[in-house]
Task: structure prediction
Amino acid sequence: MSLPADFLFSQSALQDYVDCPRRFELRYLRELEWPALETRQAREQEEQARQGRDFHHLLHQQAMGVPVEALEATIDDETTLRWWRSCLGWQEHHLPATRHAELVLSTPLAGRRLMARYDLVARMEDGGLLIVDWKTGRMPRAALLAGRMQTIVYPYVLASAGGWLSAGRLDNTKTISPEMIRPDEMIRPEMIRMIYWFAEEGRTIEFGYDEERRRQAEERLATIIGEIGARSEFAPTTDERACRFCRYRSFCERGVEAGDLSELNEAKADESITLDLDELEEIAF
Result:
């Protein structure tokens, strides 16, 4: 099955392709819903997912101006409340007042369009831009996170389409493309930083950016996008360990029984499996 001409690439789609081309095809091209469990502890996993959704929604509402006291009054889960209070404390000391939540940017690349949906982009006092992504999953090593598509895509798209933010201009639309940016609003890659904030640990992993990283990202992303566009067949991954946690495993005849949630957490910690439950769905409100 070939790629539609209007296909919009995201970090999640690219990560799925890198991890398993077949999963990319089934999820994004065929749009196949497959009801298999990802882990045997379905209720525990769903509870973790619910907590993550609730936490992101609280932060989105906060960024939209809803009073903190009113939001906290709605929290009925001890874990979410602990994450919430920890995050408020971190924001107070690390984020400026000018923030853009749930921002969507897109840029052309390799004859296609690449988009990014940001939890938060903050405009610093010096005009620089800080990408903040809230994570409720287990904190990995920085070296592993550096290779994830999200870490590659988000700064690249912001460098291409986010200059108007650094210039301090506000638009009525959240979706901005490079054609809407004036020449005096281009941002230097060195003015971009990206932070992952991990709720459970209350700690961050930060990545800087520069022209060399931007150039390398553009080359790699263009290569992957071009490769996808040229394919008509998408083979499953050769690393079958991750198949235990993929909902398409029985469709691909890679087993029927779901993996264990604790096994997934351990595998993610020692980096033998790169599946990230935080990134299975891009959260939008």
